[in-house]
Amino acid sequence: MSSGSTVSHGLSRLQRAGRRRARPRAGRRPHHRAHPLRHRAGGNPRAVRRLRPGARLAGAPHPRKSRGQRRRPARPLVRSPLLRRLAELKPGGVDLGPRLADLGAKLVSWIGSSAFGLIGTATRLALNLVISLFGLFYLLLRPQATWDAVRPYIPFSARNTEKLRQRFRDVTTSTLIGTGLTAAIQGALVGLGFWLVGLPNAVFWGVVTMVFAILPVVGSGMVWGPGAIALLLDHRPLPAFLLALGGLGIVGNVDYIIRPMVFRRWADIHPLVTLIGALAGVPFFGILGLLIGPLALSYFFELIKMYREEYLT
User: Per-residue pLDDT tens for 80-93?
Assistant: First the structure.
């Protein structure tokens, strides 16, 4: 009996010891949930810190970021109050947000597909400008010799030929000075107006106005008009009204005061000739057609007048 009780007592002690080993201790994580870096480093904290950068490069998950952490929503690339308000507009029940996003995607796709065409156009315009400047330089280098070489081929009398030369000179002077002075004044006024109403990049838009102001009557309105609309969409009606009033009352009248005054000073040219010549010259000469077109059309009318005086009267 004593030996049997001894054996049973020993078996019960072995069972209790096995249960204690199988039960995890309090405060210790199970072995299968231990971090792989700590297991590789043998539990040494310094070794874990040395292994962590290399493990990140190798693609091992970060211990803090791999536990179902939620990703933050992507921020929009362009955050503008004006674009946000445009997206919130629903005229006639139509949601403008998706339509604006679709329009922006189409615009980006068009720019990407037309990049080579735009580069080719810019290169062609640059070459035309360089060639025109070189030709103008050599024409102005020896003007009398150039005129002596051209004069025998003009089918008019010597008196009318000299008169035609003077008319060409007056037309060129009036076109260049009138167009340049008008564009400079309108650009300065539009830039000042943009600065006063708080629109950004006032100097840049002033320079853009100088380029568009080559077109009489409608040139400057292509800049200050969208500026007034942008202010109105930004819920700033008073600055929008003031900008539109200044564009119509001040900037617009420069075209009707300065340009005719200069044209009457040197040559009697109607502003409509300048407008039609600029619009017709752009398809043939590019951006230089804004100046070459009015000059060519004015020269054509002068030739018609001279032909009538020479052969029809």
Answer: 565 566 666 665 56
